[in-house]
TrEMBL record, chains A, B:
Residues 43-309 form the Aldehyde dehydrogenase domain. This is Gamma-glutamyl phosphate reductase. The gene is proA. Residues 1-25 are annotated as: Disordered. Its EC number is 1.2.1.41. Pathway: Amino-acid biosynthesis; L-proline biosynthesis; L-glutamate 5-semialdehyde from L-glutamate: step 2/2. GO terms for biological process: L-proline biosynthetic process.
Length: 449, 449
């Protein structure tokens, strides 16, 4: 999950791993790449103006046309994808990455269903955030409008191409895509299908463009194109996100990493603790809202039952010494190292530590959290309130599974990602987070006194 | 207004212009500065946690204590300021910059009054943005919480020190300040007064800190301190803002530049046009919401009256050839160059051009605008609606002065600045824009199916 796609030096222009079937420009100078990507961004700006004018019915027609075109082009998509997968195998790509790279008929059906779901959601554009009539008679309203040009830099997961394009189009934006070079053949077909579908309903094909053909150099230009690109969304592993966040001059929405904690205090119910831990760790271990560290108050009696249930479910427990001493003999465990507290396993592994107070639990969380989601299991009101107040994460949960930090679960309809930064959006982002606002002031000649 | 305070190269550590009275570290290595600024940021984080817990009454007490302390320390503040001003004069600083640098008893009174106004405003922290009970019984709410550590980089205007500190404290944040070195003696006293006032009411002094003693190197470290600093606000001229925006790895809110347009279409009322143009250009020419370019439809008959009124008010008109041909003989003008369309004069100057259509007016605005504020004067409904829909600026105004793009005028109470970016905040920013949100989820054992 940490495939670094972008070099951190601005002068790097080489992405020599041309995917089969992709059109790779030969011997491009940095200034050529810059001019080409700027030209793509300028076309995107013009397309964005037309997208911003499209009403919901028109945009939904486009989303359904994309879905129908994906179905109609399934064969071509799967063939291109097979070439990417074959090249990946030849390059020794890991099984997990190959799985993410692979499309199947069923996965394409899933993308089509997601587009239909998007078409059924309300339009975030035009929503009035607030408004009033001022004492001087000015009518004032703040309205959601599209961002304009949205760029996405992501790894070799072709489903993201369709996913992020659909979200951007529904919210009235144009999108510039930069996917992993290992998926370039697949993405090239998907972008063509998206563009043709847009044109078929009278919307601009340039609302979806890719800079994949310019490799890492193209991604670097995209990251510096402040003013041309309104927002940049990195999607992928830690290295990719850190590279984008550190090097981008374009405003970035940081998504992702979840080193998620659950704290069981001395008043927590045993049965609830067992069920929530099983759900939070084993329901889908590879995602960001799965729990990675469990902290147990030394006064709690639930540890044996919780540990036994997790052990039985195949979870490997990385425990500190006091936890090990308190575990039933039948429960397997390995010693926790310092790095375990920092690790987002995304697998059937869980770090478990013992604390003697709320204070100690909150200090541990502050030291190690990525600010995604933390939960407390408690029946003590003041502990619940203190945890809510003092834990500074995008989502703070009392007596429920951490798996609820999800746009769909929280009623946002679609999810752009889960923001772990504090600016603009925090936690699950829906379509509204792909819009900005505009103040509209209407008068009849008012001047300022 | 374009004093560049920060070098763009990351290895620049020299700010040799030590202000009189400031404690300037001697022979600091870059790694020393980094460690020192990181240590300041870590203290700021701890202080931010305590500020986040302070209720409104406590924070308001702090703001009033700061006001009283500013009054009590007026003599010391003015003495330090006199040293900065004397050094500025010796360095040949321009009269305009010296004016911004200068504090007087009346100006200190103004700062005290602004703090009192802040104390009277509602607390943005704890406001529930949205909430619902989900079908599974989970109670969900999204609540405004403080950002945490806010940093500000600004020019040699000591009033900004008190202004931004007051806004940050009211919204429950800690703040790290980096003012212009030319104001370092004044800022040093102001920061001491702020810190003592915080302590006097039992809040942490470290909620207000400065990195002025580390010069440009300190500012560079601050800009790279992603994770330690939650948001960075540059305040000042174009060069300062561009430097921060381009070099910061910390999320930035870009404020400022306003190349503001008014378009008079062929249906606009003459009297209204005269009054609005006079107000928008002459009421306070040096601020960002003052009009800089007037576009007049060739079918309008109001130009002679508008131009004569502006000329009489001392406005120098920079006009294209068609406007010049249409001006009354008695009205002075100079020819507009291409650069006039791009210029934010911030003075009694106005570029004036003639257009033959809405289309042409909107194209001109798109080419030259900074996205701050644009207005249309019209009595044509479809023109008004088209202008609102197609002009992509933070504020779009119909039949009123552009001077209304202001936090106070739009009912926000206090103004942090006027954002010209699309992420997080757009247009006038109030206290709420110095907060982020937290999702709070409360259940009784819910797990995800």
């Amino acid at each position: 999950m940490t495939e670094a796609l972008i070099h951190t030096t601005a002068d790097n222009t080489g992405d020599t791993a041309a995917a089969p079937g992709a059109q790779q420009p030969v011997d491009l100078q940095p200034s050529d790449v810059e001019a080409a990507v700027h030209s793509i961004a300028d076309r995107s700006r013009r397309a964005a103006r037309r997208m911003a004018m499209a009403n919901r019915a028109w945009k939904d027609r486009a989303l359904r046309a994309v879905g129908a075109a994906l179905k109609a082009n399934t064969q071509a998509i799967l063939e291109a994808n097979a070439r990417d997968v074959a090249a990946g195998k030849a390059n020794g790509t890991s099984a997990a990455l190959l799985d993410r790279l692979t499309l199947t008929g069923a996965r394409i059906d899933g993308l089509v269903a997601a587009l239909e779901n998007l078409a059924n959601l309300p339009d975030p554009v035009g929503n009035v955030v607030r408004g009033q009539t001022l004492p001087n008679g000015l009518r004032l309203r703040q309205v959601n409008v599209p961002m304009g040009v949205v760029a996405a830099i992501y790894e070799a997961r072709p489903n993201v191409t369709v996913d992020i394009a659909g979200l951007a189009l529904k919210s009235g934006n144009a999108v510039i895509l930069r996917g992993g070079s290992a998926a370039e053949a697949t993405n090239s077909v998907l972008v063509r299908v998206l563009r043709e579908a847009l044109e078929s309903v009278g919307l601009p094909a340039d609302a979806v463009q890719t800079v994949d053909q310019y490799g890492r150099a193209g991604a670097n230009v995209l990251m510096r194109a402040r003013g041309r690109v309104d927002v940049l969304i990195p999607r992928g592993g830690r290295d990719l996100i850190q590279t984008v966040v550190t090097n981008s001059a374009v405003p970035v929405i940081e998504t992702g990493e979840g080193n998620v904690h659950i704290f069981i205090d001395e008043s927590a119910d045993e049965e609830m603790a067992v069920e929530i831990l099983l759900n939070a760790k084993t329901q889908r271990p590879s995602v960001c809202n799965t729990v990675e560290t469990l902290l147990v108050h030394s006064g709690s009696t639930v540890l044996p039952a919780v540990a036994a249930a997790l052990d039985k479910a195949g979870v490997r427990l990385h425990v500190d010494e006091r936890i090990r001493a308190a575990l039933p003999a039948a429960v397997d465990s390995v010693p926790a190292m310092d790095e375990d507290w920092a690790t987002e396993y995304m697998d059937l592994d869980l770090a478990v530590g013992m604390v003697d107070s709320m204070e100690e639990a909150i200090s541990h969380i502050r030291r190690w959290t990525t600010g995604h989601t933390e939960a407390i299991l408690t029946n003590n009101l003041s502990n619940a309130e203190r945890f809510i107040a003092e834990v500074d994460s995008a989502a703070v949960i009392v007596n429920a599974s951490t798996r609820f930090t999800d746009g769909g679960e929280l009623g946002l309809g679609a999810e752009v990602g889960i923001s772990t930064q504090k600016l603009h959006a925090r936690g699950p982002m829906g379509l509204t987070e792909l819009t900005t606002t505009k103040w509209i002031v209407q008068g009849e000649g008012q001047t300022r006194g």
